[in-house]
Amino acid sequence: MIINMKVNGKSIGVECDPGDPLVDVLRAAGYTEVKKGCGTGNCGLCTVLLDGIPVPSCSVFAGRAADRAITTIRGVEKEATELAKFITAEGAEQCGFCSPGFALMVLAMRKELSSPTDAEIRHYLAGNLCRCSGYEGHLRAVRKFLEAGRE
Amino acid sequence: MEIGRYERPKTMDEAYSLIVKERGLPIAGGAWTHLTMKKTALAVDLSGLELRYIRDAGDAMEIGAMTTARDLETSSLLEAAFGKVFNEATSHLVGVQLRNVITAGGSVAGKFGFSDLVTVLMAMNASLRFYGGAMVDISRFLAAPKEGPFFLEKIVVKKGAKAAFQSLRVTKNDFAVLNAGAVFADGGWRIAVGARPAASWLSLSAADALGREGAPTMEAAGRAGDAAAAELSFGDDTRGSAEYRRAVCAVLVKRAVMEASR
């Protein structure tokens, strides 16, 4: 079955089983910035925005994405690059494998919560696992990124 | 999961026909379905229907089947009607991303043993509205074997309930080792316990122990917890033994009753 979707503003059609996980279909179509981790919706690596809402693309059927808009980290490159400056300054990462999903969640949070507390930041980002950092650097970076955006 | 034909109906009648007459597999959130590795000739994606809503219907709240766990977690309407109980029953569910996928209808229709939401709905005596059919109490639905295809449209929860939810988890965003819901409404108590690890179930003896007293003492709440632990069955899995769950049940029910009676 051909599934048509719009990825980062570009319309594409992909041949796949509608029951395939969206992450597999996106990666096969060349969107390898979408990382695959647990495959069960637990780790947050494969997060994409589906019609603007963050979802784990491993837990979404490809069929559900038909005629919908998907945003990967490449679709928000400018904002993600800005966030990356804070991540780097706080030494918040090592391998970077969790970064695409993490950055998309931070950007989604910024739209959903106007001025989140530390507890709200932790709660919102709890579905993004990082096995390098210990999260404290992430928290500092996110806090400063949000503060900078408000100034 | 292998799917022969994938349909995303635009109308309720079309969806009903695909599910009931053509025996298609309804896909609500799909977060658990995709893990089952099933094969199905026809999948019916319900996301094209207007079933994602939380409505104030006067004496009750109506929750559309496609309302997400995140919607329930953040709903000011539900908080105004029932306090934080829906927030507490959904906010531990993995991460925000997955809660944007998981639906109320999928959690109920799947009769998932691990579901926190189902325990709350059981305690609240929620009614299920099936499209083209009658209203059915959730406890009756959970108790009955699945008989043929059905299309869950919405969940109806009466207002006026004082409700509380308690759970114990190995880690904050894991499934519960055990969960418990306590509700005082219409002059009586309903106590539900889930993640046993079997599906949520009512403890009638715990409700009897509390009688019609809306503000029970700590001792009475403790007796209700003991009664639930003695009455219900528990099983073993990687999160805990049956014996451990029984001990936890007594404590969680007691805490839920005290919280609901505040």
Write the layout of secondary structure elements.
The complex is a heterodimer of chains A (151) and B (262).
Chain A: E1 2-7, E2 10-15, H1 22-28, E3 47-50, E4 53-56, E5 69-71, H2 77-89, H3 99-112, H4 118-124, H5 136-150
Parallel strand pairs in A: 1-5
Antiparallel strand pairs in A: 1-2, 3-4, 3-5
Chain B: E1 2-7, H1 12-21, E2 25-27, E3 39-45, E4 54-56, E5 60-64, H2 69-74, H3 76-82, H4 85-90, H5 96-99, H6 104-109, H7 116-123, E6 127-130, E7 135-137, H8 138-143, E8 152-158, E9 162-169, E10 176-185, E11 188-194, E12 201-202, H9 204-210, H10 218-231, H11 242-260
Parallel strand pairs in B: 1-3, 2-3
Antiparallel strand pairs in B: 4-5, 5-8, 6-7, 6-8, 9-10, 10-11, 11-12
Helix pairs in contact in B: 9-10, 10-11
**Overall 3D form of chain A:** elongated
* Main sheet attributes: strand count, strand direction, barrel closure of chain B: 5 strands, antiparallel
Mean pLDDT of chain A: 96
User: Which word captures the global form of chain B?
Assistant: globular
Strand arrangement in the largest pleated sheet of chain A: 2-1-5-3-4
Q: Kindly provide the radius of gyration of chain A, computed on alpha-carbon positions and rounded to a whole number of angstroms.
A: 15 Å
Percent range of helical residues of chain A: 25-40%
Structural class of chain A: alpha+beta
Low-confidence stretches of chain B: none
> How much of the sequence of chain B is in beta strands?
15-25%
**Sheet having the most strands of chain A:** 5 strands, mixed
